[in-house]
Amino acid sequence: MLEHFTSKYQPKLLTDFTINNDLIDIIRTLAAMDNLNMLFIGNSGSGRTSLIQAIIREYYGEDIKLNHDNILTINTLKEQGISYYRSEVKIFCQTSSLIKNKKKILVLDDIDIINEQSQQVFRNCIDKYSNNVVFLASCSNTQKVIESLQSRMNVLNIKSPSEEQLKNIAVRIINAENINVNNEVLSFIVKVCNGSIRILINYLEKFKLLNKSIDFELANKVCTNISFIELEKYTKYCKENKLSNALKLINSLIVKGYSVTDILDSYFTFVKITDTLAEEKKYNIIPLLCKYIAIFHDIHEDEIELSFFTNNLINLLQE
To answer: Where in the chain are the domains?
Structure first.
């Protein structure tokens, strides 16, 4: 069976990580001090889960199965009630380790999406069972993690990879898989992956499955929700004060089935990476985009708002 790229190229041990070398050194130091209770902060696709799994392999040995009875992973937090944390977790923490001279490991993925009451349960478990259990957690927003829980763990921030680091990862996979892409395509996918290593690898897997030479036009179709070529036309119409043309194009995207949120999110990504807009204009457009995205998330999602946005965008680009 063919192995998915995200699994095939996932770092297995700490030595396999090619970015955040300072962070890896800190983890090794904490491990040597037997102080492994850690909370990793990072965006989706930043490598939080891969890092935690690498720590587990380093701790128990490379051959450890991640579903071993000594490891409890909680990553469906939204579906579990407070009773689950009070019973299953405590039973796990109270029983002895099955591996000699090693603690058990409790992994808490996305701890910031559970309520404060449930977080209090974990805080109490750390107080009572740290002699028997290592607690490894991840989150994307520390403001939603109670202070008393953070104070009991080593809080480590995972920096987003730079474009150069993303490019190095992509080149390594391209060479290993014999994928035919040019430098223009390489630069494009590094920009549109939004700093996510997972998304970047998924793009490369799509290229591999296509089994053909990848040019910019094909990459644009494969790697973007809405073609950036369409969004470039839309921007051109707005810059030329052609309101009817811009509205016709944006409405054609709605007819194709894209939601208002899809369109705005894609345009947000486009604005960040396009060379057709001056940096000063980008700085002015992004707050406008954020305003309309907030309207759709907090108030309502109505197609008429795209017309208002387009009119505002034209006025902004004429200044």
So the answer is: 5-157, 163-223, 228-318
